[in-house]
């Protein structure tokens, strides 16, 4: 199984991706998590990405595409994966198409989680207190949501036209949302 999980900041992509990975025995690839690990580890990539992330901007495509390409080429993802946080703009969609074409591993589906803006803001404020992410402050959150609306949301249409999009209500209990996603994905492959 090869999936994308998409949706605005705070909608629960990471939480649901972890649960789907456990269910389908596949690997979670979250570009934001990889960037944060690199920042923490003080790597060259971390140093290059940090300023963009702290401003709520996208890290430049050449860094992000390279990171994903390297990760998708590794042995441990051969049985499947969920990409979380990528692609986020049209250039990244094209880069991903190219990578997957070369690897001969097409997408099975694109899960789009949806929730209203006030719910997202509430969840991110709560997460800020628990996790202390450097980009979960009101100003940066606003910038990130604006980038999402402008650059990432239109990509849902792209995947809808390809017949890959599965829209899921991201409001409800964590368990019920996972069950909903799995039911919808399993119905597609029957
Ligand atoms: N595909 C990408 N292209 C460019 N930059 C990215 C990409 N993925 C992550 N980043 C950078 O990392 C930051 C954090 O990404 P991450 O996916 O963790 O958070 P988010 O989508 O803003 O919120 P959430 O964790 O709530 O889903 C982004 O704001 C961006 O700067
Ligand atoms: Mg996340």
Defining key terms:
5 strands; binds magnesium ion; single chain; alpha/beta; 60% helix; 9 helices; Rossmann fold; binds adenosine-5'-triphosphate; 190 residues
Structural topology:
Elements: E1 2-6, H1 13-24, E2 27-30, H2 31-41, H3 44-55, H4 61-72, E3 81-84, H5 90-103, E4 109-114, H6 117-131, H7 138-152, H8 154-161, E5 165-169, H9 174-188
Parallel strand pairs: 1-3, 1-4, 2-3, 4-5
Helix pairs in contact: 1-9, 2-3, 4-5
How would you explain this protein's 3D organization?
The protein has 190 residues and is of the alpha/beta class. The chain has one domain (2-188): P-loop containing nucleotide triphosphate hydrolases (Rossmann fold). The chain has helices at residues 13-24, 31-41, 44-55, 61-72, 90-103, 117-131, 138-152, 154-161, 174-188; strands at 2-6, 27-30, 81-84, 109-114, 165-169. The protein has a 5-stranded parallel beta sheet, sandwiched between helices. It starts with a strand and ends with a helix. The mean pLDDT is 97. The structure holds adenosine-5'-triphosphate (ATP) and magnesium ion. Residues 9-10, 13-14, 31-32, 35, 52-53, 56-59, 64, 85-86, 88, 92, 135, 144 line the site of adenosine-5'-triphosphate.
